[in-house]
Write a structure and sequence with these properties.
0% helix
Length: 104
């Protein structure tokens, strides 16, 4: 919780007050394979004093990174974003990424 953090994407990018938090964990199986997952939430409070069209964002993500060689790696990630408007139904967006990276 802070002041003027809407400029950094908190308060769901609105001029409002919010409580936010994030949790992330990593499990490294060996030198080549790791798994990551996380959860974050940004929820407005004091909506009577600060009315806003969106009231909450919540996100989950999970990814895996595989290191083929010291220079070449690949990652797959799934992310789910749930946005709750002040009126209406929750909006859900699922997103999947696959990346290849070469370090030199």
């Amino acid at each position: 919780m802070g002041q003027n953090i809407d400029a950094f994407g908190a308060s769901i990018g609105q001029l409002a007050k919010s409580r936010s938090g994030f949790f992330e964990g990593t499990y490294i199986t060996n030198d080549r394979l790791e798994f990551n997952a996380g959860f974050g939430i940004d929820s407005l409070f004091g909506r009577v004093a600060f009315p806003a069209p969106l009231t909450e964002n919540a996100t989950f993500f999970a990814n895996t990174i595989y290191q083929f060689t010291p220079e070449f790696a690949s990652s797959m990630e799934w992310r789910r974003l749930m946005t709750t408007p002040s009126m209406g139904t929750r909006r859900i967006n699922n997103h999947f990424n696959m990346v290849f990276a070469y370090s030199f």
